[in-house]
Structure formats: structure tokens, C-alpha cells
Specification:
By secondary structure, this protein is of the alpha+beta class. The chain has 2 domains: 68 residues, Ubiquitin-like (UB roll) (Roll); 88 residues, 2-Layer Sandwich (Translation Initiation Factor IF3), CATH 3.30.110.10. It is 35% helix and 29% strand. The chain is built from 4 helices and 9 strands, in the order ββαββαβαβαβββ. Strands 5, 6, 7, 8 and 9 form a 5-stranded mixed beta sheet that branches. It has a 4-stranded mixed beta sheet with strand order 2-1-4-3. A hairpin with a 2-residue loop joins strand 8 and strand 9. The longest helix is centred in the middle third of the chain and has 16 residues. The chain is rod-shaped.
Length: 167
């Protein structure tokens, strides 16, 4: 969040003015817009400097900053950091694979990252290539519905692991 300009800090000659209720009042010279804001005992806040002419809002500066910070906090609360785990078995059937894919789709829709785990036991360790193919098949089931970003399939102990996210 960059610095928010208000009142005399605004350098534009003409500005589009929006009142407290969000109504567009039109384009004014900066001096006229400042007078409007002062008559209402509020500040003139630059909200869209890149627009032509720049857009200013008549509002209480402290309340406006509070609302901006509140929006920032809400953005940080999204679920992109949380991870849901889906465990696949080496001998998993196609139907079960589809069922788990549907679970993963729900997690991805809600904004979670999905960690796919495939534990290998005993002789299964010799067939890591087949296990990786199972994971790739699982990811392809998800890729039909989503644009995915998948990490490289890694071996972690006796497990094969990858993390997928919606991109």
C-alpha cells in the first residue's frame, strides 16, 4: 500500500470528484474540489492517480486509511497458505482415484493448496516409476477442470510427494 495523497498534497489541476456515498459529482478544478471537501469538514483523498483526470474522493482521511488496512488484512487471510493432504495408495483403483480427484477439486475451488502423498511399502519401493505415473494420472484428472501448477514429484522417505495449486 503506497502513500495516499490528500488535500494540498494533490498536484493535479482538474480532478473527478466522488462524494462520501460514492456518487460521481463530476470534474472540478482542484481548488473547487478542496472547497467542497472543506465545506463538509472532510478531506479530499486521491484514490486513482493514474486515471485521466485523477479521481478524488471526499471522505474522512483516518477512516479511509482504516478501510484500506482492513482490506489488506482480508487479502492476507485467504487460504492460499493452507495445505490439504490427499493420500493415494499404490494399488488404488481408477474409481477411487476419481473420487479422490473430486475431493481435491473441492479443496482447490476453496483456495487451498493440495499435497498429494503416495506412500510406498515393501516391494512397492522398487516401482517408483509406476507410482509417479499414478500421481501424474491423478494430476491429469484435475487438470481437466483447472489450470494447475504442480511441483516436481519428490521422494520423501518412503513417500512420493507433490503439491499442486490453482494458477
Amino acid at each position: 500500500m503506497g502513500e495516499v495523497l490528500k488535500n494540498q498534497e494533490i498536484k493535479a489541476k482538474k480532478v473527478r470528484v466522488i462524494d462520501e456515498q460514492g456518487e460521481n459529482l463530476g470534474i472540478f478544478l482542484l481548488e473547487e474540489a478542496l472547497k467542497l471537501a472543506q465545506e463538509k469538514n472532510l478531506d479530499l483523498i486521491l484514490v486513482a492517480p493514474q486515471a485521466n483526470p485523477p479521481v478524488c474522493k471526499i471522505a474522512d482521511y483516518g477512516k479511509y486509511l482504516y478501510q484500506l488496512k482492513k482490506k489488506e488484512r482480508q487479502k492476507k487471510k485467504h487460504k492460499g497458505g493452507e495445505v490439504k493432504v490427499i493420500r493415494l495408495g499404490f494399488q488404488i483403483s481408477d474409481h477411487d482415484l476419481e473420487f479422490r480427484a473430486n475431493q481435491a477439486k473441492e479443496f482447490l475451488k476453496e483456495g487451498f493448496r493440495v499435497k498429494i502423498e503416495l506412500p510406498l511399502r515393501g516391494r512397492e519401493n522398487k516401482f517408483k516409476d509406476l507410482a509417479k505415473e499414478k500421481i501424474k494420472k491423478f494430476i491429469q484428472l484435475l487438470a481437466q477442470e483447472f489450470n494447475l501448477k504442480a511441483e516436481e514429484i519428490k521422494s520423501q522417505g518412503r513417500n512420493l510427494i507433490t503439491i499442486i495449486t490453482k494458477s
